[in-house]
Amino acid sequence: MRTIVLVLLLCVPALADAEDGDNFLQGVVGYSTPIAGAQYSEGIGSGGARIGLRGGWSGFRNADGSARLGIEASFDFRPVTVGEDSEQQLRMMAGPRLTFSADPLEVYFRASVGYDRLYMGDSVNPDGLALEPGFGAAYRHKGLVIGAEAAVPIAHHPQVTSGEYMDGFTGADLQVMTFAGASF
User: Would you list the domain boundaries of the chain?
Assistant: First the structure.
């Protein structure tokens, strides 16, 4: 509910402005399910809801404006159950985004890298590196943007051998998200 309120607060000012901009801010919500990594899949069980925020800048354009290259940053989380404990998987990532437009529609491709945090017990390294390739489609009207995307986030949590030993793991999800936001 908070995400919807935040998105509405961001979109209302953008709708009053007829000019679409190079910056964007979006609220994302969707479903993520494990597709690879036995220890990862076993540890977190089935899929679940994922929510977050994404923002960026798409300032490099070709001559006719039909293609844009930019950068985006994102923060998202998913509540998970590990054994009898409730935990959260957190991701903070950034990377390039390539967008092709045919007003009012657009498709984009993105690749992000960043930090992944997932606590799976005292003997497992909770800190890891995430890589997330994805693609999506959106509808734009003035400053409002709504759409959907698919991505495959991959997280690698290395084994720690110095000090207290901690096991590592690698896991991948199939993630389907919807989003709404504003460009300004």
Answer: 2-183
The three-point CA angle 10-14-18 to 5° equals 175
Q: How far, in Å, CA of 71 to CA of 69, rounded?
A: 7
Neighbours of 97 (CB within 10 A): 21
Between the alpha carbon of residue 158 and those of residues 33, 38, 112, 126, 152, the distances in Å are 21, 15, 19, 9, 19
Q: Encode pLDDT of 39-89 as tens digits.
A: 888 877 788 899 999 999 998 999 998 999 999 999 999 887 666 767 788
116 beta partners: 91, 128
Q: Tokens 């960026």, residue?
A: 56
Largest pairwise CA distance in the chain: 58
Q: Of 77, 86, 93, which Cα lies nearest the Cα of 28?
A: 77
Token reading at 119: 């606590």
Q: What are 126-153's pLDDT values in tens digits? A: 899 999 999 999 999 988 999 999 999 9
Bigger pLDDT: 163 vs 110:
110
Between 108 and 184, whose confidence is greater? 108
> CATH: 3.40.50.720, 2.40.160.20, 2.70.98.90, 2.40.110.10. Which one for 2-183?
2.40.160.20
